[in-house]
Amino acid sequence: MSYSEANGYKSEYKGVIKIPTTIDNNGISYSVTSIGDHAFFNCYDLTSIEIPNSVLSIGEYAFRACHYLTSVEIPNSVLSIGNNSFQYCDGLTSLNIGYSVKNIGNNAFQFCYGLTSIVVNSNNVVYDSRNSCNAIIETATNTLILGCNNTIIPNSVTSISDYSFYNCVDILSVTIPNGVTSIGNSAFYGCKKMLSISIPKSVISIGDYAFYNCSGVNTIIVNGENPVFDSRDNSNTIIETSSNTLIVGCNNSIIPNSVTSIDNYAFYNCGGLTSVTIPSSVTKIGQFAFAGCSNLSKVIIKEGEKSLSFATPT
Known about the structure:
By secondary structure, the protein is mainly β. Helix content is 2%, strand content 26%.
């Protein structure tokens, strides 16, 4: 029986909760085999949960927004973790995944940006945290699906998933290995203490807002052999080579004369940016390209033959 079916939804759950292996309901004893959808949804005073080895599945939104939940150990009996099950558990610092977990749902640990320790049992055949990397990696595809403030991305990883390091504000630097080919949407969104970004030659896809609001970045380097992106002229930027579009800037960026477009949010919240020169080659500046640049006091727009358009929010 599902724990939520037997016990009902109770938003007042708080402190330490130990889920029993059996529950009596109307005089009948049932084995607890699942934690139902929304079972502990928004129990923000819940600090610890003990899940017994009888549980086979954790439902959707089961622990969503349990803000003070600090650690979770998924026992070896659990086969599946539902969509959004631990979403917004931003107080979570440690996570242990048992060896039987075969499916982790969409956004299961999204916005758990307080994590410092992630361990997947070494006998798990679907997911791993190889080389003590403090991450969850989908073994078959070598895709990192969840990282944390202490993650070291293994050289064998080929893809970094959407939101995988979302708001990991204590990351100071990250090394993206040369085997990585894609960086997902909002992958490093809000990593405000990150000082540098280094893109290897293997990366051919960077998702929307991948480095959005990384306001502390001072240095950006793209490997000179990368066929899709570059940081030409030591510009401290990421430029899409084929379109000459500047997609990511930082506090120390210089916009090269060959750039024709500045992407949406390219310099968003670059508080250390004090001046910028827009070369005559630029014909378009995207929405919110310089929004939040609170110390930007000097903007020079060079004259050119082409007209310059400023995107307006829709």
